[in-house]
């Protein structure tokens, strides 16, 4: 079996993990939640407004404060909070898989491994 086929199998194995399945369920839940959708839309609007003020050379403090306030509000939304938690869990799994591959190949990932900061050896 060649390396590409093995990578495909690894991808399929990841799709079967509880982390991936939980992430997908939370993603669908967020996409189908009207309140979460409105919060995400407003987030994009706030980011765009901040970007435009920056480009114009204006004082970004007011827009940045609005953005931070909105982000805090988003984290209070159970659907969004659950999605972010499940996304973080999946990202950790993927980082762990990448670390194992890096260790097996002798490549550095920049993640601390085994308490030695990846620089032992």
What descriptors fit this protein?
mainly alpha, extended, 121 residues, disordered C terminus
Structure description:
The protein has helices at 3-15, 18-31, 34-55, 61-75, 78-105. The protein is mostly helical and 121 residues long. The chain has a domain at 33-93. Helix 2 (18-31) runs antiparallel to helix 5 (78-105) and helix 3 packs antiparallel against helix 4. The longest helix has 28 residues, at 78-105.
How would you concisely characterize the structure shown here?
The protein contains five helices and no strands. Residues 114-121 have low confidence and may be disordered. It is extended, with a radius of gyration of 20 Å.
Cα-atom Rg, whole angstroms?
Answer: 20 Å
How would you describe the shape?
extended
Portion of residues in helices? over 70%
In terms of quaternary structure, what is this? single chain
How many helices does DSSP assign?
A: 5
Low-confidence stretches: 114-121
CA(first)-CA(last) distance: 31 Å
**Helix/strand/pairing category:** mainly alpha
Strand content: under 5%
Q: Tell me about the biggest sheet?
A: none
Helix/strand order, N-terminal first: HHHHH
Nearest-integer average pLDDT: 90
Number of strands: 0
